[in-house]
Write a structure and sequence with these properties.
Number of helices: 9
CATH superfamily of the largest domain: Spore Coat Polysaccharide Biosynthesis Protein SpsA, Chain A
Strand content: 25-35%
Distance between the termini: 34 Å
CATH class of the largest domain: Alpha Beta
CATH topology of the largest domain: Spore Coat Polysaccharide Biosynthesis Protein SpsA, Chain A
CATH architecture of the largest domain: Alpha-Beta Complex
Helix content: 25-40%
Strand order of the largest sheet: 5-4-1-6-11-8-12-10-9
Structural class: alpha/beta
Shape: globular
Number of domains: 2
Length: 290
């Protein structure tokens, strides 16, 4: 699989006033790089995860006033030289590695003029995603050693010949998530028989993490649904349409060592900062003691 769609069109209203000028998807998290722990914009961290497992074609769906994203993914060698000339070798080397990955990739930027929901953002990528593709929301990061969650998602999608493959994890209160109703399961792979967005009475504790693999038929489903909760086009409703059509929808469970970090609110962002720092420090410590 070659193509990845990353959405970054939301307004980030729950993080105002900070996100008035800086997109929430550019907020930093801690990641391990070499034998150090560094802060990186969330979108860069997601991009590098996907690049490292083999993706080279990327479509970023961005909202208005999010020029900072395109600027960040445009190599700035003058600034890189400034860092090197002023002894900032560590961060300069990190940026240089990032720029090399950008140079070796094909990047498309598609505009979402109005924040009409996750489903609308995905639909904007239709001209780009004319084959099976990976979809990743730009405000969620998955902690996973060796990016195993992405590798497993791709493997399951291919082996099960699925039309949609979801990533799920168990939560205490699933009412603020998209939730699956599970059918038969084996080896952490679950048949999905129903999905619902933010249900009042969830039928399971399996919340959907916003990382998916889709057949392009998802665009047909998005074009055949109406606005859902919040007056937005809900991707969950389109997945439900696939199930209704009798197409194959499966889910992969995050392992106990993996974790989904959400930056949508001040509380969840603080939690993401703390967990990403703790995990990154632990990984560096393990490397140094091996």
């Amino acid at each position: 699989m070659r193509k990845a769609v990353i959405t970054a069109g939301g307004l980030g209203t729950r993080l105002l006033p900070f996100t008035k000028e800086l997109p929430k998807e550019m907020l930093p998290l801690y990641v391990k790089e070499g034998n150090t722990v560094m802060l990186k914009p969330l979108l860069q961290a997601i991009f590098e995860q996907l690049y490292d497992v083999g993706f080279k074609e990327f479509c970023f769906v961005v909202g208005k006033e999010k020029r900072a994203i395109e600027d960040h993914f445009t190599p700035d060698y003058e600034f890189l030289n400034y860092l090197l000339n002023n002894g900032k070798t560590e961060v300069a080397n990190s940026m240089s590695n990032f720029y090399e990955k950008v140079k070796e990739s094909v990047l498309f930027f598609v505009n979402q003029p109005s924040p009409k929901g996750f489903g609308d953002a995905v639909l904007r990528a239709k001209p780009f995603a004319n084959e099976d593709f990976l979809l990743h929301a730009g405000d969620t990061y998955i902690i996973s050693n060796g990016n195993k969650h992405i590798k497993k998602l791709l493997s399951v999608h291919e082996n099960y010949k699925a039309d949609a493959t979801l990533l799920v994890y168990e939560v205490e209160d699933p009412r603020r998530y998209g939730v699956i109703t599970p059918g038969s399961s084996s080896d952490d792979v679950i048949e999905v028989v129903e999905v619902e967005e933010k249900p009042e009475k969830p039928k399971s504790r399996f919340a959907i993490a916003p990382v998916y693999v889709f057949n392009p038929v998802i665009f047909k489903a998005l074009q055949n649904i109406k606005e859902g909760k919040g007056g937005e086009l809900q991707l969950t409703d389109a997945i439900g349409k696939l199930i209704g059509w009798g197409l194959k929808v499966v889910a992969v469970k995050l392992s106990s060592e993996e974790e989904s970090l959400d930056i949508g609110t001040p509380e969840t962002y603080l939690d993401a900062i703390n967990k990403s720092y703790k995990k990154s420090k632990s990984e560096v410590s393990n490397v140094l003691h091996d």
